């Protein structure tokens, strides 16, 4: 134990050597324990490997460091899979991996070329063949002059001195500081989950090993649930959704026609029964519970098209109560006075012009009583 300093979430521990890999080169940090105390992150700062540890230890003492193997294996599978898949894209399509990101259950590489889905599948096939052949993965330390002679996927001329070279037999060779299994079979499976255009190239999302297995499991559950909901075979789920979409479009059209018909009937009744105010205008009012804003607007438009009317449409939609006031051609009045009264009554906001105004307020239980008061005010 060389250093042990208090840190925001425990202690920052530096040891003379460690089995825990610090986050770097696109690979996530190992997790583990020091004498049984949790280490949740390891980082490299100014040449030192700092363990974020839950417990304090005396400097100078001897400690036992253990790696969390589940996490390490997950990370190695993704990381080594990235080598193999990048090699496949490079070998087949001369597409270079120019960016690598790894998060929990999410791994991506950015290629400097556009590739099609079919091409991505070809690279995926080649990569998985290399996994199934269980090719040895070796690590060697070579001077940069030797390294530059190798048929490397990614050359970095800036690196000098002794370099760490990671090589898959008859496959990927590159300089890398990460952790790797001793053979490609450990990767288990390389599965591309998505490709999309990205900065003139392609972003490839993929998962390897256990993460790929669990992702496939989740998707299987998803497609099974969908197939049960649609009462159709799994391979016909998309067809089923298409049918539902068609059905919904048909129903929407019918609903639109029915609402239109209802509005026409309502307008007829209002024309016969609407009271006349002091200025001699018909007061046409409609109060609706659970009404679509689109339908309310249509009704309001139809009512204000009638000359010599004072119109109010007040409706509850979701968490809101909305109100619209308008004057038909030739009608006397001022909607600005009306909206001010409504804002005050409902505790809402809104405004407009002399001929038309609208606003809304948060839903309240007694909104219908307030609507009645508004109507009484309009009838004066
Ligand atoms: Zn590597």
Supply the key terms:
binds zinc ion; Threonyl-tRNA Synthetase, Chain A, domain 2; Elongation Factor Tu (Ef-tu), domain 3; alpha+beta; 6-stranded antiparallel β-sheet; 5-stranded mixed β-sheet; 18 strands; 380 residues; single chain; 4 domains
Characterise this structure.
- The chain is α+β, with helices and mostly antiparallel strands and 380 residues long.
- The protein has four domains: 3-67, Elongation Factor Tu (Ef-tu), domain 3, CATH 2.40.30.130; 72-222, Threonyl-tRNA Synthetase, Chain A, domain 2; 232-272; 274-379, Diaminopimelate Epimerase, Chain A, domain 1, CATH 3.10.310.40.
- It is 37% helix and 30% strand.
- The chain contains eight helices and 18 strands.
- The protein has a six-stranded antiparallel beta sheet. A five-stranded mixed beta sheet has the order 14-15-16-18-17, sandwiched between helices.
- The chain is elongated and about 100 Å long.
- The structure holds zinc ion.
- Zinc ion (ZN) binds next to α1.
């Amino acid at each position: 134990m060389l250093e042990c300093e208090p840190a925001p979430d425990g202690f920052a521990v530096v040891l003379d050597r460690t089995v825990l890999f610090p986050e770097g080169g696109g690979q996530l940090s190992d997790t583990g324990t020091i004498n049984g105390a949790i280490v949740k992150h390891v980082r490299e700062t100014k040449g030192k490997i700092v363990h974020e540890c839950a417990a304090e230890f005396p400097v100078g003492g001897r400690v036992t460091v253990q790696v969390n193997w589940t996490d390490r294996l997950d990370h190695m599978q993704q990381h080594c899979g990235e080598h193999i898949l990048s090699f496949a894209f490079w070998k087949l399509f001369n597409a270079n991996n120019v960016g690598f990101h790894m998060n929990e259950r999410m791994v991506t590489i950015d290629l400097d070329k556009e590739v099609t889905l079919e091409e991505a599948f070809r690279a995926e096939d080649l990569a998985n063949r290399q996994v199934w052949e269980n090719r040895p993965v070796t690590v060697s330390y070579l001077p940069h002059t030797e390294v530059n002679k190798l048929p490397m996927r990614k050359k970095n001329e800036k690196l000098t001195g002794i370099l760490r070279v990671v090589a898959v037999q008859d496959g990927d060779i590159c300089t890398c500081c990460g952790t790797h299994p001793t053979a490609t079979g450990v990767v288990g499976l390389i599965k591309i989950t998505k490709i999309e255009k990205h900065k003139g190239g392609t972003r490839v999302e993929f998962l390897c090993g256990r993460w790929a297995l669990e992702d496939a499991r989740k998707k299987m559950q998803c497609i099974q649930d969908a197939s049960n909901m649609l009462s159709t075979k799994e391979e016909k789920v998309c067809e089923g959704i298409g049918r539902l979409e068609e059905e919904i479009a048909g129903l929407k059209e019918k609903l639109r026609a029915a609402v239109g018909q209802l509005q026409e009937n309502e307008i007829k009744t209002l024309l016969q029964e609407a009271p006349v105010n002091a200025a001699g205008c018909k007061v046409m009012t409609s109060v609706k519970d659970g009404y679509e804003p689109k339908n309310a607007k249509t009704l309001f438009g139809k009512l204000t098209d009638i000359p010599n009317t004072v119109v109010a449409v007040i409706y509850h939609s979701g968490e809101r109560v909305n109100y619209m006031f308008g004057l038909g051609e030739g009608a006397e009045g001022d909607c600005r006075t009306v909206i001010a009264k409504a804002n005050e009554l409902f505790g809402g906001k809104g405004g407009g012009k002399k001929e038309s105004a609208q606003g809304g307020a948060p839903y309240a239980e007694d909104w219908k009583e307030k609507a009645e008061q508004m109507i009484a005010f309009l009838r004066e």
